[in-house]
Amino acid sequence: MASLRPLSSLRTGLKAAPGVATVGRRHAGGGGGFNAPTGWIFGERPPPPGQRRKKENWERLFHWGMITPLVLLVAWKQLGPDTSMEPWARKEAEKRMSERGDLPKYTPTKENIVSYEEWDRREASRLSSQGKGGEGAH
Asked: Which residue ranges have biased composition labelled Basic and acidic residues (predicted)?
């Protein structure tokens, strides 16, 4: 029967395959240094008066690459076709009602056209008849 070697001896005897990195002991703490706050945004000092800040190479590409698709998306959503169900349902209902011959038509009459004062007076009398008070009960 073969002798069993302790597990620790197996661990130390193994070598990593070529091209495979071995994982060393890790410690908490994050490593690296600490950048103390300087009070300047992104750690950049403002340029002297009368001079402009020199943009980095990636900034123009970033702005065009972010703003242009956003503007195109908003324009596409606003100017694109209406894909909601309501316009289709309204047209379908009007078509079916006209086929049956009972399409309602609004014809303004003198009774339908009232001034704001007349409307308020009618509302106040309606509310008082329902027992909800008159003026100021809104």
From this structure: 90-103
